[in-house]
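Quick start: read one record
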Amino acid sequence: MRLQRLLRIGGDYPATLTRAPVHWNIDAMSRTTLLIAALFAAAAATAVSAQSAPLNVEIDQATRVPLRAAAGSIIVGNPQIADVTVVDSNTLYITGKGYGVTEVVAVDAIGRTVFQRQIVVTDGAGAGRVRMWRGAQSTEMACGSSCSASVRGSSGSVAGGGSQ
């Protein structure tokens, strides 16, 4: 009553401080919130683990890479090992140019990473390729029904010529 006398609004009408009863089911809200948080964490962990494994690309072959968001810039760690061709803002092709390991990173327009992966360029199964040695000079040959010197050439100054 004393509080009502102190809080008078415009004369005889007392202002009373009341609180509406609020009934929250804390257990149900906590479970729902935890479930939603766990789902987001699992989705983020899956996306990170899917991109953390190295991507193997055979030399002179291309691999299609779909992006989860539009890329604004592409960074290749060592362009002598891998090359990237941008088909559209959400699709890349990574081509193995030289043996080794490098990294490819794609960022969106504001710099957030949308793709980051280690690229391992290997010789694959070696199907259709032969390396021929003459002394210290080697020549890589591309073979189908017959063999010819590959575009990769040789380890010496001049690629071996013609069919073998």
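The longest helix spans residues 26-52.
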